[in-house]
């Protein structure tokens, strides 16, 4: 798991505006979704998987809040 933090430009005397996001690796994401890494890769290729974040050349991650949103969109009544 990676913790990605970013903040806005604070004015003197302001408290820092810092937002942190949990970013999971592909294996961590697959475990959390109870699926194989290859299935998650195939979903990405087909454009039906959760949104990814490009972390570097050949390296992607998945934001925890994006996984929750993606899962909620797949609920069937």
What report would you give on this structure?
By secondary structure, the chain is of the alpha+beta class. It has a domain at 25-77. Helices cover 35% and strands 29% of the residues. The protein contains three helices and four strands. The chain has helices at 26-32, 37-46, 64-73; strands at 2-7, 18-24, 53-56, 59-63. A four-stranded antiparallel β-sheet has the order 1-2-4-3. Strand 3 and strand 4 (59-63) form a beta hairpin. Helix 1 (26-32) crosses helix 2 (37-46). The chain is globular, with a radius of gyration of 15 Å. The N and C termini lie far apart (32 Å). The mean pLDDT is 83.
Query: Mind describing the biggest β-sheet?
Result: 4 strands, antiparallel
> In percent, how much strand structure appears in the residues?
25-35%
Helix segment tally: 3
Quantity of strands, as a count: 4
In short:
By secondary structure, this protein is of the alpha+beta class. The chain is built from three helices and four strands; from the N terminus they run ββααββα. It has helices at 26-32, 37-46, 64-73; strands at 2-7, 18-24, 53-56, 59-63.
How does the SSE layout of this entry go?
Blueprint: E1 2-7, E2 18-24, H1 26-32, H2 37-46, E3 53-56, E4 59-63, H3 64-73
Helix pairs in contact: 1-2
Task: Please supply descriptive tags for the structure shown above.
77 residues, alpha+beta, 35% helix, 29% strand
């Amino acid at each position: 798991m990676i913790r990605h933090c970013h903040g806005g430009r604070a004015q003197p005397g302001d408290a820092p505006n810092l937002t942190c996001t949990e970013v999971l690796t592909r294996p961590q994401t697959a475990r959390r979704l109870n699926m194989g890494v290859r299935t998650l890769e195939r979903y990405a290729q087909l454009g039906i998987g959760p949104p990814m974040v490009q972390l570097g050349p050949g390296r992607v991650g998945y934001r925890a809040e994006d996984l929750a949103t993606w899962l909620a969109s797949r609920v069937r009544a």
